[in-house]
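Posting this for the archive.
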Amino acid sequence: MPEQTFLAFDFGLKKIGVAIGNSLTKSARPLCILRPATKQARFEQITQLMNEWQPDCVIVGLPLTLDGQEQPASQQSRRFANQLNGRFAVRVEMVDERGSSLEAQAYLGNNNDDDALAASIILQRYFDTLA
């Protein structure tokens, strides 16, 4: 399989964590945190990232309840994933993000913004499922 570039998003209405990785190393790293003021600004920032990195696949975190059920935030993340697919004609995969923010906070050891690190944890979970 040729090397592929992946972008991952930890979607939130106020902040979106972004991570980058590739299929060769199967490793993810935090990239940035987007803080768009409007939906239009959100997609302008994402367009810049898509143009810069030209990912082959996008991963979006799927927030589920502790027992694995969908919740209102799940629908928002699915809608965001569908918008990415529609706007950029890129393959989008959803990955269970349960506990990613807690894991990121534990790693950071403080209350700093953890969204980009959470996105990298989500992407790493995806890589860990690949053979």
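The chain has a mean pLDDT of 91. The longest strand covers residues 27-34.
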